[in-house]
Design brief:
Order of helices and strands: HEEEEHHHHHHHHEEEEEHEEEEEE
Shape: elongated
Number of domains: 3
Strand content: 15-25%
Largest sheet: 6 strands, antiparallel, barrel
Structural class: alpha+beta
Length: 541
């Protein structure tokens, strides 16, 4: 298109300056004055594109899950219309949190300015009295716990002295005598096999007794630990009940609610409740351990007894020449003696000792807990007294400055949270038509992608794409332009230059400048991005 127009202009110039081959101008002679050559000025030719008067590619300011797409392609919107919204639940909660923090900071600052009220002083004094009363109660509980420690230690001493050394010596002597009698009956010509069988049987019986002792002791220990855990749970429940009703009495006395109750009282109540939950968990674990120990005793003893019976049957077969009745009587005597000795120093006695020892340890743990309660209550009294002194004293300037700085920080934080929340919603920057919508509801969409294209089709313009630096010097704002279109060859529109880009850009090795042209009229057949050719009337250099 550009080359065709240049050739046409050249031809016109040549024709205007050259006569025909055989014709002369009538009356012309050698001295006739020649006519001046008329040269049409060269138009500045450039390619361009049809563009709406205003268009923009919109991107999200925040990446995230698309919560809602509020428009569709082809829809006309006004400036400020909400277009796309990212999931903003976390941001909304951040705004609420920032608002709450600001309210707290403002209340703290106002409290410093106004000073303590009579009601606040009375409330702190009541807390001091309550804490002092709790100190007295805790000290009384310490006395009870000390008495329980003494009682459990006495019980342990009693159990330890229940069996004397002479009792154990007599039982051991009976065992030795029974063994000697059995050995006498089984004496005589014996084979090595009989001796080995007897040794195996003796070992199995010893293993059986050891199994009984060991598993019984484990069961007794587990049972004791379960009782200790149950006692601890009851103590924690009683402690929580005391704290709970103290808080309710404070609420009733001062006409407040659980939400407005002093945070320290609520913390103590919540801590006491957690202690109950921990104690319940420990009790359940102790119960499971006890059940496992009890079942383990049944299974382990049964297996050991089965082994003894098996070896006894084998050994009996080897004793064919022995008086079975006498041997059986001797064995019964030995088993009875061994059982008596086991009762004096075996699992049963060990269970009593373990239970008594656990009682001592449990009572000592309770005493330690009560002493801790006293220390905590005394600490509460000191803390409340310090708070009372602080309430009644005038605030220092540094405290006021710090409170004011905190207030301003919370105000900025709220503004920032609100601004971030606003960024979750994409809005229309001007009146226009939605041309393209890319996100879908429920999908993740990033800030680097084009979310929506918006255009103002109320007017149109032509923007050049290849006007080089050698031609741009001939163009000024207001220059007259002829506009033609590749898609509609018979259409030509007049227009004028409305703006020239201030800086050029590299395009295929050349420096080109973008020129914006406003048509004086429009044709409804034209569409966005159609190719146009513009012929700009040059200025004289």
């Amino acid at each position: 298109m550009v080359s065709s127009l240049l050739i046409l202009n050249l031809v016109l110039i040549l024709l205007s300056g050259c006569p025909g081959d055989s014709e002369t101008v009538p009356g012309a002679g050698e001295n006739a004055t020649p006519l001046p050559v008329v040269q049409a000025p060269d138009e500045v030719i450039a390619d361009g594109e049809v563009e709406p008067i205003h268009s923009v590619e919109l991107r999200l300011e925040l990446s995230g899950i698309i919560d809602e797409v509020l428009v569709e392609e082809g829809q006309t919107v006004e400036e400020g219309t909400q277009l796309i919204r990212v999931d903003s639940r976390d941001l909304e909660m951040s705004v609420e949190e920032a608002q709450a923090n600001l309210s707290q900071a403002r209340a703290d600052y106002d409290l410093l300015i106004e000073g303590a009220t009579t009601e606040e002083i009375a409330a702190i004094e009541a807390q001091i009295r309550t804490a002092e009363e709790y100190v007295r109660i805790s000290e009384a509980q310490v006395g009870s716990a000390e008495a329980e420690v003494m009682r459990s230690q006495g019980e342990l001493t009693r159990v330890q002295g229940k069996v004397t050394s002479s009792d154990i010596a007599a039982a051991q002597a009976e065992v030795e005598a029974a063994r000697a009698e059995l050995a006498r009956l089984e004496a005589g010509p014996k084979t090595t096999e009989v001796q080995e069988s007897q040794a195996a049987l003796d070992q199995a019986r010893q293993d059986l007794q050891e199994t009984r002792d060991r598993l019984s002791a484990a069961k007794t220990q587990a049972h004791t630990e379960m009782l200790v855990a149950a006692n601890l749970l009851r103590d924690q429940q009683a402690n929580y009940s005391d704290i709970y009703w103290e808080n309710r009495e404070i609420e009733e006395e001062y006409g407040t609610t659980s939400q407005n109750l002093d945070q320290r009282y609520k913390d103590r109540e919540e801590q006491a409740l957690r202690y109950i939950q921990n104690a319940e968990y420990e009790l359940e674990q102790a119960r499971i351990a006890y059940d496992n120990a009890r079942q383990g005793e049944i299974t382990g003893v049964a297996a050991a007894e089965a082994r003894v019976r098996e070896l006894e049957a084998r050994h009996q077969e080897l004793l064919n020449g022995t008086d079975a009745d006498e041997v059986a009587t001797a064995r019964a005597r030995l088993r009875s003696a061994e059982a008596s000795l086991a009762r004096l120093q075996g699992a049963e006695r060990q269970g009593e000792l373990t239970s008594a020892q656990a009682g001592v340890e449990g009572s000592r743990a309770t005493l330690q807990q009560r002493m801790t309660d006293v220390e905590r209550a005394q600490s509460d009294v000191e803390q409340y007294r310090a708070e009372l002194a602080k309430l009644m004293a005038d605030p220092r300037q540094s405290e006021l400055d710090r409170a004011l700085a905190t207030l301003k920080q919370r105000e900025v934080a709220l503004k920032q949270a609100r601004l971030t929340l606003e960024k979750a919603t994409l809005t229309a920057p001007f009146d226009g038509t939605v041309v393209e919508v890319n996100p879908k509801e429920g999908e993740w969409f990033g800030t680097g992608e084009v979310a929506l294209i918006l255009a103002d089709f109320s007017d149109w313009k032509i923007e050049t794409t290849d006007l080089e630096e050698g031609e741009i010097v001939k163009v000024r704002e207001g220059s007259v332009v002829r506009i033609t279109f590749d898609a509609i060859p018979d259409l030509e529109l007049p227009g004028k230059v409305v703006s020239i880009q201030g800086i050029g850009k590299n395009y295929q090795g050349d420096i080109v400048y973008e020129v914006t042209i406003s048509p004086d009229q429009w044709d409804s057949r034209l569409r966005w991005k159609m190719t146009a050719t513009v012929a700009i009337e040059p200025i004289e250099l």
